[in-house]
Design a protein that fits this description.
Blueprint: H1 27-39, H2 54-66, E1 70-74, H3 77-87, E2 95-99, H4 105-112, E3 116-120, H5 131-137, E4 142-145, H6 157-167, E5 172-174, E6 182-183, E7 186-187, E8 194-198, E9 211-215, H7 218-228, H8 252-288, E10 293-295, E11 302-304, E12 309-314, H9 316-319, H10 324-333, E13 338-339, H11 350-353, H12 355-359, H13 383-392, E14 393-397, H14 405-420
The structure holds pyridoxal-5'-phosphate.
């Protein structure tokens, strides 16, 4: 073995995966699953009282954890968004403003309710939506603003909430990456009219598949409940349906897993947070030494950063030659689990570029009635988003932050090593 780059046959700095194995589970998960099994209550459908249902208990516990008054658990983060948009009053022909840096569901859930996503650029400091760009995109059709706490870092809620109030437009925050994240001491998802989460397998809190909608508003909570429960209304007869809606209920198995996983989240978030602060300080130091990396800007209003993907920046000007993608290859060869997050501006997906295929004969919802205009995504350009994905973004997966500081030193060491050998890339 040589001391050279692992990419070229040298010894990797992290021969074993860093952090802890994901997901973490043990006796509490087993015991709660067994309880569900033996109870014979495997679904939530007929059990409205929280104490009768693991899902109900999970809803209550997660709402408290994120500081919200109400929670409705659903099948996944995509359907959580659909329910939230519908509850926010989004209908066919409306526009919803979404960032170009996000997972596809933030936008496809808009299409699923018959409305039109309008893409806007992000703030290059944080990769979250640029509130000025949101302001500039508001039209008389805008029915909702859907910011994303990308990678778990909260968007500028002060600016967005002020904007929403000024224009009387509700905000659905997509908090799928941000379990445990707080803005000025309050959990995300509870700051805006509605907030949504995903509990898909890789997320920082997982039920395998699952999602949750949070709100502090009684009326919105009742709407979300109805939209996730085939149009039923609480305390009304079981076969009375009030709105057309799907069955998006979470199962009791997921509720049980969610309860057990949530009990772990406080410690996991604290560990990730402590490690990420240490890593950010280390990256700043590397930058001070002239090495071409930098942490994402952390606003002092971010009082807790729970995260799914932790981003830092590759600064191409400083590297003068090797590209971000070559750097990533070298970093992965050293044993660090790293990527670019999502790989391209969302509007570049075939779904948006090949409108004929995606929207079919009628063009609904982006062409014709009731929109009355045509949205042509092939003309959308968000320069920061394009640059970030093409040359700058590097993300590290969250389980790597569940170990000790030694793991953070290994990541910093790998970056330093690649820098020293950059001439060989
Ligand atoms: C930002 C964002 N929103 C929504 C979702 C959708 O969640 P799910 O996969 O649970 O449907 C995801 C999933 O990765 C996501 O990253």
């Amino acid at each position: 073995m040589t001391a050279g780059l692992a990419l070229h046959g040298g010894a990797p700095l992290a021969p074993q995966p860093l952090g802890r194995r994901w997901p973490e589970w043990g006796e509490p998960e087993r015991a709660l699953l067994n309880e569900v099994l033996q109870s014979g209550k495997w679904w939530r459908g007929a059990y409205q009282a929280a104490e009768d249902s693991k899902v109900g208990q999970f809803e209550g516990a997660f709402a408290r954890f994120q500081d919200a008054r109400h929670a409705v658990a659903v099948t996944n983060g995509t359907t959580a968004l659909e329910c939230a948009y519908r509850a926010a009053g989004v209908e066919a022909g409306d526009e919803v403003i979404v960032p170009a840096v996000t997972f596809v569901a933030t936008a496809t859930a808009v299409l699923q309710v018959g409305a039109v996503p309008v893409f806007v650029d992000v703030d290059p400091r944080t990769y979250t939506v640029d509130s000025d760009a949101v302001g500039a995109a508001i039209t008389d059709r805008t029915r909702c603003i859907a910011p994303v706490d990308y990678g778990g870092i909260p968007c500028d809620y002060d600016a967005l909430i002020a904007l929403g109030r000024r224009h009387d437009i509700p905000i659905v925050a997509d908090c799928a990456h941000a379990h445990g994240t707080q803005w000025k001491g309050t959990g995300v998802g509870a700051l805006t009219q509605l907030g949504t989460f995903s509990f898909q397998m890789g997320k920082a809190l997982t039920t395998g598949e699952g999602g949750m909608v949070l709100t502090n508003d009684d009326t919105l909570a009742a709407k979300v409940y109805s939209y996730h429960h085939i149009g039923r209304i609480k305390d009304r007869p079981f076969y009375e349906h009030h709105v057309p809606a799907s069955n998006l209920r979470m199962t009791e198995w997921q509720g049980a897993i969610g309860l057990a996983q949530l009990a772990r989240l406080e410690e996991q978030t604290a560990t990730r947070e402590a490690n990420s602060r240490y890593l950010a300080a280390g990256l700043e130091q590397l930058r001070g030494d002239g090495i071409g990396v930098a942490p994402i800007f952390r606003d002092e209003r971010v009082t807790r950063w729970g995260f799914y993907m932790w981003h830092f920046k590759f600064l191409p000007e400083a590297w003068r030659g090797p590209s971000r993608d070559q750097f990533l290859k070298a970093l992965r060869a050293e044993g660090i689990t790293a990527g670019t997050g999502h790989t391209q501006p969302l509007y570049k997906n075939p779904l948006f570029q090949d409108a004929e295929h995606a929207f079919g004969r009628t063009g609904f919802p982006v062409r014709g009635q009731p929109y009355g205009k045509t949205m042509d995504y092939s003309r959308v350009v968000c320069p920061q988003t394009e640059r970030i994905y093409a040359t700058e973004a590097v993300h590290l997966s969250h389980p790597q932050f569940l170990g000790g500081r030694g793991d953070m030193d290994t990541i910093l060491g790998a970056i330093e090593k690649i820098w020293r050998h950059r001439g060989e890339l």
